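Quick illustration, no need to memorize.
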Amino acid sequence: MPFIKAAPLVQTFNSCFALINLRVIFSISLLFIMVQPKLWGQHKNEIVATLDGPTNQIRIRQHFTYVNQSKQGLSTL
């Protein structure tokens, strides 16, 4: 089997790779990471704050939900 000269293949690869800028690669990878679907956690914390202007009061309501996915009981929360 004859040997294939690597120089033309390397030049083709380098020219194609040179077209892709590192900024483009970084942007695409960052976009891929940021667009991932929401992950499910063990707790959910909702906070609703209402400002009452005339009385200068802030009303805060917090709802904390913890989901225990194990069969063991909770020892500390």
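The chain has a mean pLDDT of 75.
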